[in-house]
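Course assignment 3, question 2. Fill in each field.
Student: A.L.
Task: Predict the tertiary structure for the chain below.
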Amino acid sequence: MSEYQYYEFLAVDRPLSKAEVAQVRALSTRADMTATRFVNEYHWGNFRGDATKLVEELYDAHLYFANWGSRRLLLRLPAAVLPAKTASVYALDESLSVRTCKGHTLLDFCPEPDDGGEEDWEAMASWTLSVFIGLRAELAAGDLRPLYLAWLAGLGLWALADDDEEEYAREVEPPVPAGLGTLTGAQQALAEFLRVDPELLNVAAQASAADTEPRVDRKRLASFIAELPAAEKDTLLLNAAMGSEPRPGAQLLARYREAAMGDQDTAPDVRRSAAQLLDAAHAQRTGRLERERAAREADERRRVEAAEAARADRLDHLARNAEQTWGTVEDLIARKNSSAYDRASVLLDDLRAAHARTGDITAFEERAGRLREAHGGKPALMRRFDEIGIPHPRERPAR
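Answer field:
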């Protein structure tokens, strides 16, 4: 197919001003654009704007993909909601980069291009930011599964690149969020977008708690808020009243969870190395492929057995109605056309097998021989007799 590129931007926390809309409109006159959304498709040429800069300054999310395999998802969240240092522990260059810009944390999900194929392209062609934008709210609420998925995607690329195994041993997984075994729709879409290995995800989920709700102890939260400086609390209340900061409650909860995590005792010994995860995924994949192979072989055996049983029933029926079948063969030969000769040959072959099942093969050979002698002047029929192995009576070996 011809070249194709898709660009989409969303403004979530605030719409663009008229001046900002005009600024972006100057980059593309053909784009479908409102104060909160920009969409354009390119079949030749490229977008003139800087996607990264637009997200840094104006938009909260950006999606890009091309039919040669390139793809990118860029999310911007207030740093107070998702500090960069929290997200950075999940960053691998192959799948996710994290940085701070103008009070925001930028998450750049940019897996390496892949040839993909028709199936991969069909999945991409259905993507819009509406599929992924829920990730932003999940991250703001403290759900870090999207970040862990990005780390897994980078780890899978290591395995495909056959990197140094010592590096696998040194790399230890980041904190494992709850709910990896039950991803949300947006998270499942992200796993596909990042090409996360399903076996690797299954292995990772074994260390993931089932409860996905961030646990907030009301008394501990109240104590945390009470210890905040009065001026800071006044600022939080003012921002909430004026609407100058999006989701002030989420920001406060994010700060509380960060402080609570810092107070907890860490247990690095329960963290798995990259090598352990990759080895376990390989073992799971090998087991799955072996089970699938065994299932295919069992299905094939059942298919063959069923076919053999059906043929045996049909041959038994022919044996019970042999005279009628011989008559049908003679009627078909009398039509003197190719399709009738083909059907007659099939019936003769079945008659031979039916006689063999009853131990009466000599009777078949004698009658088939007489049939061949009677129609020896039909070359097309004789060729078919030769193909199914019915010799002339004079050619049959003596018994």
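Instructor remarks: DSSP finds 18 helices and seven strands in the chain. The longest helix spans residues 274-320.
Grade: pending
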